[in-house]
Specification:
Helix content is 30%, strand content 25%. It is of the alpha/beta class. Among the domains are: 159 residues, FAD/NAD(P)-binding domain; 149 residues, FAD/NAD(P)-binding domain. The strands form nine sheets. Strands 7-4-3-11-23-22 form a six-stranded mixed β-sheet, with helices on one face. Helix 1 packs parallel to helix 9 and helix 4 runs antiparallel to helix 5. It is globular and about 75 Å long.
């Protein structure tokens, strides 16, 4: 193996091996998958994509699985199937537990090791409970299929349990849902739950009136959708309240015990009786960021995201790239880039092209490179039927036009054609009938009272 010395700005050597350039991608989310697809026709490159799951998940629509609007298979695509036509690409189901940047080797949980020339880390982020990890079993988050199915079970189990009890206090607690976090996920969950309770389920029960359901959205900041322009945040809150959602801003959850949720607004403390609490606030590194920081000495932010260079590499190791939610990219604008799918997609494509450019120039170390620049295509969130907010670089939309744009964008970014078709058919059916077709309780834990 021949070693080439790097410029003074880098401290670790980059090894050049005979044979194809080995690119290892950790994570099959938006960033990792789009990087792999971009490298599919690269000359003299072999790609290995590693993920703990065997499928790519379209996370922006997970909340619809949680509320029974879609099935998991509608928004998931097998990674092997998506990449099967790329002869230079191999998919491994596994979990990376260590990285040796000097030897350029990763270690998997089962003990296997795998060498790399370029490493792309795109593992995403996990839930963060602000030091109260004991809440994780009480208030599930929404990052995986299992999370969505657990939310779905709790939501529909609550309605069934309410039907089975004659205790009015318990019944109201069962029909009270608290959603913590007023970002896009929380807003979309709240709107979908409101439509479910006030319309979809209304004719289905005999002993309860589902329209007395309380859907409470709790946000610590002074408005919902903080990343959005002020007027769109105000419109989103207005639409949520029109649908029946109770929005509490400048409010923190300070305790969750059984069916009791304690809220604090300023100096005031309130206790709610709510059987179902759903978490949509805060993210943290699930582990890979810590491994990279320990092995390379790179810095991380408070959430555990890894600080990256303008080309998305680690400053000390230019052949290791971090993209997507795990990357703290602070080289464009006043704030780091948000952890949203369009950012990850663009970062994945950029890094793939950068690796190809370096190879075409006969060098695996950085040269005169154009830094990554995110082209903001806009941000959007759906609130409910005919209701959404969209912030585009040239205009802002609300109401039906925003809702239509939201539909189009999400269909467009689904990975496989059959997913696009299935979701369109299901959405059309839900729109015409107001019937959520995937309202299944897949694990029975019914709570009843007298």
């Amino acid at each position: 193996m021949q070693t080439i010395e790097q410029p003074s700005s880098a401290t670790a050597p980059v090894a050049v091996k005979a044979g194809p350039h080995q690119v290892v991608i950790v994570g099959g989310g938006f960033g990792g998958l789009y990087a792999a697809q971009q490298l599919g026709r690269a000359h003299d490159v072999e790609v290995t994509l590693i993920d703990k799951r065997n499928f790519h998940l379209f996370q922006p629509l997970l909340y619809q699985v949680a509320t029974g609007g879609l099935s998991p298979g509608d928004i998931a695509s097998p990674l092997r199937g998506v990449l099967s036509q790329q002869k230079n690409t191999k998919v491994l189901m596994g979990e990376v537990t260590d990285v040796d940047p000097d030897s350029q080797v990763i270690t998997l949980k089962d003990g296997r090791t795998l060498p790399y020339d370029s490493l792309i880390v795109a593992t995403g982020m996990s839930h963060f409970y602000f030091g109260r990890d004991d809440w994780a079993t009480i208030a599930p988050g929404l990052k995986t299929v299992e999370d969505a199915l657990e939310m779905r079970r709790r939501i529909f189990d609550a309605f069934e349990a309410a039907e089975n009890t004659d205790n009015p206090e318990l019944r109201q607690a069962l029909l009270t849902f608290v959603i913590v976090g007023g970002g896009p996920t929380g807003v979309e969950l709240a709107g979908s739950l409101a439509e479910l309770a006030y319309h979809t389920l209304k004719p289905d029960f005999r002993d309860i009136d589902t329209t007395v359901t309380r859907v409470i959205l709790v946000e610590g900041m002074d408005r919902v959708l903080p990343p959005f322009p002020l007027e769109l945040s105000a419109r989103a809150q207005q639409d949520l309240e029109r649908m029946g959602v109770q929005v509490l801003t400048k409010t923190l959850v300070t305790d969750i015990q059984g069916n009791q949720v304690t809220l604090q607004e300023g100096d005031g403390v309130t206790t709610l009786q709510a059987a179902t609490v759903l978490w949509a606030a805060g993210v943290r590194d699930p582990g890979m960021g810590g491994i990279l920081a320990d092995r390379t000495g790179e810095e991380r932010d408070r959430s555990g995201r890894v600080m990256v260079a303008p080309d998305l590499s680690l400053p000390s190791h230019p052949n290791i790239f971090v993209i997507g939610d795990l990357a703290h990219f602070a080289h464009q604008g006043e704030r780091p880039l948000p952890g949203v799918a369009p950012v990850a997609v663009q970062e994945g494509k950029y890094v793939a092209k950068l690796i190809q450019k370096r190879l075409s120039q006969g060098s695996e170390i950085p040269g005169d490179e154009v830094p990554f620049i995110y082209k903001d295509g806009g941000t959007l969130a759906v609130i409910g039927r005919h209701s959404a907010v969209v912030s585009l670089p040239w205009t802002k939309l609300t109401g039906f036009p925003a809702w239509f744009v939201w539909l189009f964008v999400h269909i467009f970014f689904l990975i496989e054609f059959d997913n696009k078709l299935m979701v369109m058919v299901q959405w059309a059916s839900n729109y015409l009938t107001r019937k959520q077709g995937a309202r299944l309780i897949t694990e029975q834990k019914l709570t009843t009272g007298s």
